[in-house]
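Data availability (excerpt). The following record was deposited with the supplementary files.
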Amino acid sequence: MPTDHVSPRARRWALALIWLIPLLWTVNIVAARQAPGVVSPHILALGRWGIAGAVLAALSWQELRAQQSYVWQHRWRYVALGACGMWICGAWVYLAGESTVGMNISLIYASSPVLIAVGSVLWLGEHFSKRQTLGVVLAMAGVVHVVVKGEWAHLSHVALVPGDLWIVAASLSWAAYALLQKRWPTTLSPTAQLACICWGGVAVLLPFAVWELSLASTPVLTLHAWVLMAITALLPGLAAYWIYGWTQKVLGPSRVAMTLYLGPLYAAVVTWLVLGEPLGWHHLAGGALILSGVGLVMAVQTAHRATIQTEEV
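Predicted structure:
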């Protein structure tokens, strides 16, 4: 669906739903806090995307049967997308949490929208104005302000550890996931498309999960582990990825990627409410910068679309 030829109603829904994406992904933070000692990274990721893929396949079964030749023809695309979005951006993030701190994860992962924006301009030929660039800078400044707790001198004390390299790879992989979906348009519905990507990810995750099961240190699967798989499958998995895929068809990858900047702000609020972690002034100041930056990009996007519609009329 070309981003210049969608209905105003679809665009309004997309502009509203993108604010929900980072909130859904914060559920993964709470689950990740409970995962160590309960379920290993690749098994958690496999369960998450296996459950999500099964639900999506059930919902789009008739379409997938009708389009089975198309799906088979593009099977390696789905394996590539699954590797980027479900393996590297799934299990590798859990692996990173074993050796790095939250500040490093947030700082490094915050580069994804910048990578997507640059890739959209250079690779996809997407328009990105100076005011939108200013919005990116404001949002990035807000992210840094949140993760360093308002004390920018902390940046000089950031030391790279193996977990940081996992997150660097995940950041690059998420940019690739977003850009490849735009580069490879599909005739499938968002539900069927995500089902295929999920099963591509499951195919990549399976051998690593089997290897983890063979280790003596791997926790035995309990009800708690299955609950974590189900929650991460339904909220930061099914809901967040489906909305992300659909909205970027409507608004473009670089605009939707801006919602990643809201992650630290949403996470601060969720951890305060759910985990009892304190909410400081640095969260409020950083949140103001983040929201201003995202709002600026969205305002320019809306004005650009309105101009196009006026010219078409």
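Summary of structural features: The chain has one domain: 8-312.
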